Amino acid sequence: MANASEGRSLHVQLLDAIACKLLHTPFIRESFTHGLSCHFSQPGCHGSPEANLDRVWQKMVAFWKLHPCPDHFLHMKLSMFVSLEDPHDKFPCLSGRAIETKNLLPALASVWKEYAERGNPAHDTVGWGLAQSIAMDQILDRYPDVDKLPDAEGIAYRDAAYNYARAQSACASHFNRQHGGSLMIFDITAKTHWMLHGADNALFLNPRLSWNYSGEDFMGKTKVLQASCCRGNSAGHSCNKFAEKYGCALHFTFKELGL
How confident is the model over 139-153, as a mean pLDDT? Predict the structure, then answer.
């Protein structure tokens, strides 16, 4: 593991898994996909963005009735993922919990498949990218209690992650070419890059070891700690300082508990 992860410490690997696949990257990706459903011409979705979103939402509700899951969005409105004043130029950000976003994917992919224009490369690529993201989640769902994924599954997870990123990159290039490079849709972010580091590490460490669906609110507390480590430090050094402080806090907490 150390040889394969040369140059990256363990705490950075774990932060990759927490910050990327489970939170930021899917949020952005599904925001963009919803943006397509609501703000771009799509067969079967004609009318105002609000009317288009309502049609897409009703289809997703019907999907969840056929495929029940306990944690999914209970409603959806445009302001939850896009700026109403400037939907094309402001960076999208889906408002919701990580588990809600995860469970949104299969429903959204089903609706996308129904409305996508047959033979349209951009539409096909979006659908393919959604399928790759779903595949990543399904692999981890099959192995909730292991520290290391089976070799074949670790490779499959890594391949799905890279295919997911390729789809995002292809869509970003497509829509930027169509709109003179000014449309912020499917744009690659640092979180996507870090997600791929986490996918590489999945060959050695199950990403589930560091996900935090049940403790997502804890992220708000770690932001305060991280902010205290940033002044006078580079990005890399601030992460090291964060890990040192957090490690000390865990030590004292465990000591108080007699562990």
Answer: 92
Q: Report residue 196 CA to chain centroid gap.
A: 12
Token output for 87 = 């939907």
Instruction: Report the alpha-carbon distance of residue 215 to residue 222 in Å, rounded.
Output: 11
* 3-class DSSP assignment, residue 148: coil
Q: Is 164 exposed, middle or buried (0-12, 13-18, 19+ CB in 10 A)?
A: buried
Q: How far apart are CA 146 and CA 10, in angstroms?
A: 18
Q: Tell me the C-alpha distance between 13 and 203, whole Å.
A: 12
Q: Can you read off the two tokens belonging to residue 221?
A: 């507390």
Report d(CA 39, CA 47) in Å as an integer. 10
CA 55, distance to chain mean position in Å, is 24
Closest Cα partner for 202 from 253, 137, 134, 257? Answer: 137
HSE toward the beta carbon, residue 127, CA cutoff 13 A: 15
**DSSP letter, residue 47:** S
Measured over all CA atoms, what is the biggest interatomic distance in the chain, rounded to whole angstroms?
63
Residue-wise pLDDT tens digits, 36-82: 666 655 555 566 777 888 888 899 999 999 999 888 888 887 777 76
Tell me which residue has tokens 């992860």. 5
**Positive or negative: CA dihedral 91, 97, 102, 106:** negative
Q: What is the pLDDT of residues 218-244, one digit of tens each?
A: 777 788 888 899 888 888 888 889 989
Return the bridge partners of 105, or none: none
53: buried, middle or exposed (CB in 10 Å: 19+, 13-18, 0-12)? buried
DSSP-assigned beta bridge partners for residue 198? none
Q: Collapsing DSSP states into helix, strand and coil, what is residue 42?
A: strand
